[in-house]
Amino acid sequence: MTSSTRRPVLMRALLASACAVALLAGPVPSAPVAAQEAASAVQDVVLDNVSLAFGDTLVTAPKVTVSGTRLSRDDLLAILKADAKDSKDLSKDLWPARLQRLEAGSLTMPELRVERRDGDKRQVVTYRDVAARTIRAGRISELTAAGATLSVEGAPQAGSGSYGRIRAEEVDLTALARLYSEAGNAGSPFQRLYAALAIETIAFIDERGTTVSIARLTGRDLAGRQTPATWRGAVEALGDGGLAEDDRAKRARAAGLLADLAESVSVGSLEATELTVKEVRGEDPLSFSIGRMSYAGGTEAGITLAEIGFGAKEAQGKVGRLTLTGFSLEPTIAALRRLSKATLPADTNLGKGAAPARDPQEAELRRLTPVIGTLTLSDLGLDLAQAGVAPGPVVSGDPLKAPKLIPLPPLHIGLRGASMSFGPPKDGVPVETRFSLTGLTMPASAVEGVPGLGSLGLYGYRDLDLDATADTAWNEGKRELSFKALSFSGKDMGRLHVNATLGGIGPEVFDPDAAVSGFAMLSATAKALDLTLENGGLFERFIDAQAKVLSLKPDELRKEYVTASVIGVPVILGNSAAAKAIGAAMGKFVAKPGTLSISVKAKNGEGLGMVDVSTAPTPAAVLDKLEVNAKAE
Q1: Contact indicator for 302, 217 with CB cutoff of 8 Å
Q2: Sign (positive/negative) of CA torsion 600, 604, 605, 608?
Q3: What is the pTM of this model?
Q4: Are 122 and 128 in contact (CB under 8 A)?
Q5: From CA 625, how far away is CA 605, in angstroms rounded?
Q6: What 3-state DSSP class applies to 272?
Q7: Which candidate among 104, 449, 539, 585 keeps its CA 20 to 30 Å from the CA of 57?
């Protein structure tokens, strides 16, 4: 497992390894092909103590056997001399052309060592029993290694690791070298780098004792296309500064490079099985595992995690399945393109009519938010440690002896399913969202301090089984924000359902500047509200509990509530026709709890604003501006 901070290092090491395999097999020299074929027959060539330098990367192989090639030993040695004056010229300018001419039956190396140094940092990867078979025009039909070891020194992630058997099919080293060293543009075609890849038994441990392991990693159809700065140039430039840089020119360049790289890679599929991460040192050891992690590319791209487990001193948990679909980087890439242009130095010649340069703000970074899509989760189980103790069982035969105190058992929370969907973002904020929870289970004691839920234990609920949904959408044309389905329900409780529409919600509400968005919200209006309350047993339990507290019979207390609803509510609301309708519906519901529905709509069609409500002399003045319908069934 490799952290993101080491990706540039390993990318360069991988390229050097792949190119070394190809170059050691030896391309055809510059003499005409027909003359070369006449001069030499197919043969096997053995080279000893081969060493190649690629900038700060050194590739060595004690023994290289090239079989089924028409190249002579002198041909190979001449190529390995790196006769260009600058070795960087060799790796940058000559690799694709040389690899394109590469032909060999096979190439084997008992050991291939790739070492890279960067100041005090040193990384070494040593491959065992490397074999490349059927090499034609720089393409290898099968590339294998029996395994590899990895060591990292002098870096924050210093440690060591190993790989089991490695196998790749249809590896195109010419395409890899071209992407890495030759510039292109957005119109450059995608080039497939390999058809299939499989790595067995990956393991890594760092200096802190954190271990990472993967039983098997596979991938299919990795492709890429050339970028203006080349892959190597982009990675190296990003290492010198990113979007957090103070220098405007560096920020602009980083944004453009990130956009180029994001659009230059295509992955058919990836899958990892039995991934585990363990931190055993310290006072709070932790562990994390995924039974299977998979990614499928294309138009229906998605990520799936199955059999997730996690644990620490205070919590243990599991998730049956976690899936993300509909994810897209298009808004992120578009925002990066804008940043690359908006942050140009002030003296840059932008051309006639171009906008002046300006510094990017935090707002611009927020606009990098991608389309998140839909995240679904199933079978969540969470056990949380509780502080404190409770009396244990009474010791038999000694009634005077106090029971032994034992730690409180873990608090268990379960969730059968959850779904979160996010539409395209507006200035970094999704304009459509849908959230749902199904089967949220927990002891009633877990919500004792939560407003609205804290009294459920007093009403006789020991274990809770709850569902909740929230569905919102913004209509730019109507300048409306709709809460289409806000609902909350519980087993043996009932259901509360709310629909609401806010007006006056324009694009400025989503402005990343908090001052702008906050001021815009002051013009929001309440246009409509529909509320439905369905009793499922909670009201009867509420009446019974309150009756005990007040030393009344449940029927007596119910009658008092009916009177308060029919008479008291209209008085409080101004005794208008709307107030009386609400009171009558509430009284009917209290007398025979079923379904209570209240619908409110602004008469003017524009909605009521904060000023309308705050300046109204009485509640009746507010109700006069509303169409109200209330009923109980």
Answers
A1: no
A2: negative
A3: 0.78
A4: no
A5: 10
A6: strand
A7: 104
